[in-house]
Write a structure and sequence with these properties.
This protein is an alpha+beta fold. It has one domain: outer membrane lipoprotein receptor (LolB), chain A (Clam). It contains six helices and twelve strands. The chain has a twelve-stranded mixed β-sheet with strand order 7-8-9-10-11-1-2-3-4-5-6-12. The chain starts with a helix and ends with a helix.
Amino acid sequence: MMNKWLAAALLALTLQAHADMELRYRDAEGEHRMLARPGMVRMELPGQSGYLIFLAGKKQLYMVNPDQKEYVLIDQVGVNRLANTLNQAMEQMQAQLAALPPEQRAQMAQLMGGLNPQENAQMRFEMRATGRSGNNPVAGTCQWHRMRFNGQPVGEACLAPVADLGVAEADVQALDDMFAFMEQMLSRLPMIQDDPLSFGAHKAGMLPVMFLGADGGKEGELVSLKRNALEPALFQPPAGYQQRRIDEAMQR
């Protein structure tokens, strides 16, 4: 009898360790929902019917649009094509600027924001511990980290160790893989990158549970954490939807 109880307890612990994860964050825009299971992530934004799906094994990100019954595929092939097209366009604009009188050239450069096809090719998103701790109602104690983008402060994130949250490391690793993928893809497209936090506040073995803006004001926090099995269909684009690569979608 004791062996049966022990086996049942071990099975329960194993199932809990591999359970999928549902996170809900709340900020001024509303509630953000993130679903994760090993190698897969789904992100839902407030007030939008569309959502994102990331598949780590395929290194693909899908931007699903139910209203149009289509999805945009973001992968290395499409991003490289788009980057080459945008860089060529920027180089042509730079050549045209060089032919203008100095005053007009300065005015146009200012309107363009000083963009250069090669500038910021190496984007750097950094997180450094501040030594301060915080407390989130769902996660408990967390450690504040200062976030910097290309050397400029963009806010702070309070991170909680995965081991303290009772979630599977593989689920959190899926989030880390997604934000690392986004960083890699967006670093090829500096001319359209407008939100440094698209790179995510990720750090190995930790989960962000609270955020502060660059001005120190509160921007969002974790309000719910569930560990339930999720349907695999949630992590696949719906059947019958039209696929477009990101380079094709940007040319529409």
